[in-house]
Amino acid sequence: MDNPTRCSVIIIGAGISGITAAKVLAENGVEDVVILEAADRIGGRIRKEEFGGVTVELGAGWIAGVGGQLSNPVWELARQSNLRTCLSDYSNARYNIYDQNSGKIFPSGVAAESYKKAVESAIQKLQNHDDSPLAETQSYLHLLINIHYILNYLFSSGPKTPIELAIDFILHDFEMAEVEPISTYVDFGEREYLVADERGYEYLVYKMGESFLFTSSESEEGKILDSRLKLNKVVRELQHSRNGVSVKTEDGCLYEANYVILSVSIGVLQSHLISFSPPLPVRLSLFFLSPKSKYKNKKLVVNVCLPSRWKTEAISNCDIMVYTKVFLKFPYKFWPCGPEKEFFIYAHQRRGYYTFWQHLENAYPGSNILVVTLTNGESKRIEAQSDEETMKEAMEVLRSMFGCHIPNAMDILVPRWWNNRFQRGSYSNYPICVNHQLIDDIKAPVGRVFFTGEHTSEKFNGYVHGGYLSGIDTSKALLEEIIKEKEWKSENQSFLIEPLLALTGSLPLTQPDAVSNNLHKFNIPWTTLSS
Ligand SMILES: Cc1cc2nc3c(=O)[nH]c(=O)nc-3n(C[C@H](O)[C@H](O)[C@H](O)COP(=O)(O)OP(=O)(O)OC[C@H]3O[C@@H](n4cnc5c(N)ncnc54)[C@H](O)[C@@H]3O)c2cc1C
């Protein structure tokens, strides 16, 4: 094995969070970094592909949260790069629900009424229920946060009819899949813009990289040539100690640094693609029955959080959402394209079965492309089957909506985020009543290993701007740590010099380890009592 490459900071992953973190470090004088990226490109879950003559976004498609008092930083980046976007209005989707049996759109009154009734009756029930988390619900915003509860109350034995299932799917899996989407809309505004630019959404990540990495000037967009960015480097082992970190890649290369920033997705962390030595901390949970009257016969869970025993549990408690956009190219349009027709819904007795459709005529007029979104179980199911089978299923659904005469699709594109071992899903999805300790634990550093990525953003997890802002937060936290270590070292010079003297025979080697205790963030032991 060659000598290890040595640097100050290794960044694992070149998605938006990793590239942003590297940029902030470079701007603050830490340029001695190495970025290890498993794929052959930067951008991660922001990814374009040419399909049917246009550029489609396989991953992030929308800049969500625009038009509010604060400006979404990703929207700012998009404006600086003149990224072409178009406004999307999902709210119309609920008026375009196709009945599986008749192939006709439910009269707008019926669909809108079902939707309104669903929401109103749920609020009513929840407000009457004292211990409901929605007892105080007064606004639409509160409603959005707690959509899980609404749906559970509304369909107390589960949604049954195709239209109920379709509404459940739109609200639950599509519009409100994350725990607090509200922060995005409250902070940055309620508008969402679809990126429709041939350079792709990923151009923003490339532009950021270009600001601190060397690029070739051959083409207008150039190519990142900087040796600090290493593509096709799959990190498999990470060893960390109070002296530093060493990272081994699948091709046998070794890298050493003072610190690591790990930006891989929560799905990758859960998959054990990367092994940690020593292993990431685990939490011990003790269960027993309380003899005391107040808690009599209740199971008590005492989470004994021994020093540094918390990380793995937090990682395993965060869900990952699988969200798949299937693209279909047709020789001509057969779907309505007028105003408020961009999105339409198929109501089927199987929940989430090719439910949510979008045409790309607003983004790319004349492209004749439809996109259908599947999630979770349905995503995994179609990932496991051939694209031909998926096309056949999609065509059956389209024929039941638009009739037998419609043409076959000429081409299909099925991204596989779940089976991609560098992603293992689309984005993090925290439990609805998330305990803030969970997110704190997920993002807290372990010794010299710092964690970043959309899943570490308390307010904006699941979004591109969550990834971007987490990259800034993590690199700032690391910069503080670097400064603290420098200060500690200069204050404790004697501890550093004396062991050297000992080596020359002047002193016994009994001095304390010459590294700041701050570097090891042992958690203070804590306990929780829950019934
Ligand atoms: C289908 C889909 C639709 C989405 N829609 C939207 C949307 O409309 N709007 C929105 O705001 N957000 C959306 N998102 C979410 C958004 O894309 C992500 O939140 C964001 O891009 C995450 O950035 P990140 O840097 O945290 O992670 P990533 O982009 O996943 O970056 C992590 C990087 O680490 C690399 N990596 C993984 N394992 C290793 C390893 N072992 N060694 C080295 N490198 C490794 C990966 O290849 C990747 O490049 C969507 C995501 C998906 C998948």
TrEMBL record:
Involved pathway(s): Amine and polyamine degradation; spermine degradation
Oxidoreductase in keyword set: yes
Pfam families for this protein: Amino_oxidase
Cofactor(s) named in the record: FAD
Residue span(s) of domain Amine oxidase: 16-282, 305-479
Record keyword Translocase present: no
Keyword field: Oxidoreductase
Family as reported in the entry's similarity comment: Belongs to the flavin monoamine oxidase family.
Protein name: Amine oxidase domain-containing protein
